[in-house]
Amino acid sequence: MPRPENLFTRDDWTADRALTCDVLVIGSGAGGAVVAAELAEGGLEVIVLEEGGYHPTEEFTTHATAMVRKLYRDGGATLAIGSPPIAFQEGRAVGGSTVINGGMSWRTPERILDRWWREDGVDGVRAKEMGRYFERVEKYISAKHQDPGTTSRDNELLREGAEKMSWKVIPNIRNQLHCAGTNNCAFGCPTGAKRSTLVTYIPRALAFGARLYADCRVERLLREGTRSVGAEGRVIQPNGKPGHRFTVRAKLVVSSAGAIHTPALLGRSGVKSPSGRIGQNLSLHPNVKVLAVFDENVEGWKGVHQAYQVREFQEEGYLFAAVNIPPSILSMATPFYGRELDEIMRDYNRTVIAGMLLEDSVTGRVRVLPGGRPQAFYDLSDFDAHRLVRGTSLLCELLFSAGARRIVLPFEGMADLRGPDDVRKLFERPVHKPGIEVMTVHMMGTCAMGGDPKRHVCDSYGKVYGHEGLYISDASLFPSPIGVNPMETIMALATRNAERILDQGAALKAA
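Given the sequence above, the corresponding structure tokens read:
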């Protein structure tokens, strides 16, 4: 299939190159693709640099391990160091993490927007002001409920369990257009139904003249005093080694590399904030999962990823969902070997894999290691560890009410639960915090926006305090965790902040 016009890969580089534009956007995910499309449509000359490769829909398959190697940074094997260590995953491809996420499209809860306005002094961010930006994003990504007949049995069991407990459960809103329910969301949608930025905002940006260069790793920003004037880096060769050099000169730079790599890029480039908080304030929605075995055939791979969310305890910071994981990935993610692993995998088609998202109460940080790579550090608080145990107990109650006969827990050394009366065992002795299996895909907050240069890294619209020509457009901006999937929040803020940049468009063109 022919590559889109204005999209370039490492195959197009035959020598070192120097490029120029009005606006350089670093990253092509939820933040980068949106800001690039809005600015290009507004008449600015835009270049997007993406470290990952270009992989069209036709390349996505059900070979999960191959897709992980192709679409995830470091094959999905990244850790935040702490007690316990927390595994996290990031997309690294044209389209960023929108290519591999579950597609949940939720507006920022109003209480979070009010908190940002009240406690952090973020201007123009309350629900009545953000409404039109959410609406614009939802139109482009087709945010809606699933078509009938696309829901898997594992999700129906989650819903049935919640209803038996009289708990609030709602159908997910997802960025999809007639999704067929192939449950391959986390490994690239093979039908194009999931409206990631790969198939929405990036084509729109390219149609308005933006140029996107894949396989390009940005090493540092170019600066003249306190003004950012571009970036430089290397093209990544197929073997992962650096190839040709590139330099991009721009009148304005937008970093959309994510909450781990944006602060690392700023650090490598010598950018300092008056607050001294670049890389701090890392929140990440700690997640735990349980494996619930049923007597009936579940076949969770038949149907959509996360059709429902249980919202009964949202005000306490808990969300529950069912997430099918392919056998090859699940077998690596369980703490079993030999006969025990064989027993678990034999029950695969009768298993519901359910997860819990926690709105965390503490933060970590990102540091730049020698050589320039970022490393996240995060210690789960004792309070949040207790909340994870409580949330897991609630989730287990739900699953037993739905008919589960065995539940495998994410707590090292704790026996499987065999019935609802076993749930109380979770509280009979303290859970050893380093032995909790925690993961996440929601990293946020490391360049927080707000109204105080002494407390925040960016102003209310993503401009880095103390620097000219430098903006941020990704989840780094969040002053706090938001308790729901962050994609639509990132996109709406990118739309809003692009509007602010376009107000300065005449000045950029004249510069």
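The longest strand covers residues 242-255. Try to locate this feature in the token string yourself.
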